[in-house]
Design goal:
The protein has two domains: 96 residues; 45 residues, no CATH class. The chain is 53% helix and 4% strand. The chain has seven helices and two strands; from the N terminus they run H-H-H-E-E-H-H-H-H. It is elongated and about 75 Å long. The relative contact order is 0.10.
Length: 156
């Protein structure tokens, strides 16, 4: 199918109601088309895990304009089957991506690889030196509290 509204019209024929009832679910499945307007965009949501993710996003069911509860999983399965003729897994999609050198050429970044002068860099250095076990947010709040207390002492 070419457009989420075609899927929505198909849902309306199948489950009743109006295409607008189903458009948000079908638009969600095809949102990745904004990044790649080729069939490969489907690798991001057109699979079994994507169907369950749609259920998490939209809830177990939607109520159409006829008052009928329609399981989101049914809508996702319909969408994926209409586009792919079956329901692939994430592994089905990922196994078709050719391996490129940049994908497996990672490195462990050290503190010297972080930008100088920002709070995250100072926190990473403090963690590396064993000076804190706090998370970045807690460490930043603690440093701000200490700085405020020091400013009060300076004015006293």
């Amino acid at each position: 199918m070419a457009h989420p509204l075609h899927h929505a019209a198909s849902s309306a024929r199948r489950y009743g109601g109006r295409p607008e009832d189903y458009a948000p679910v079908h638009t969600w499945f095809d949102a990745s088309k904004a990044h790649l307007a080729l069939p490969q965009h489907r690798a991001l949501r057109h699979h079994s895990a994507g169907i369950f993710e749609a259920e998490r996003v939209f809830g177990a069911a939607i109520r159409n304009s006829n008052g009928r509860e329609v399981p989101v999983r049914f809508l996702g399965e319909q969408h994926v089957r209409e586009d792919c003729r079956r329901i692939p897994t994430v592994a089905d999609w990922l196994s078709k991506i050719p391996l490129e050198p940049w994908m497996a050429n990672g490195i462990i970044l050290g503190p010297e690889d972080l930008p100088r002068g920002d709070a995250r860099t100072a926190w990473v250095e403090a963690v590396s030196a064993g000076q804190t076990t706090l998370g970045l947010k807690d460490w930043t709040e603690d440093r701000e509290r200490i700085a405020r207390a020091a400013r009060k002492e300076d004015t006293a």
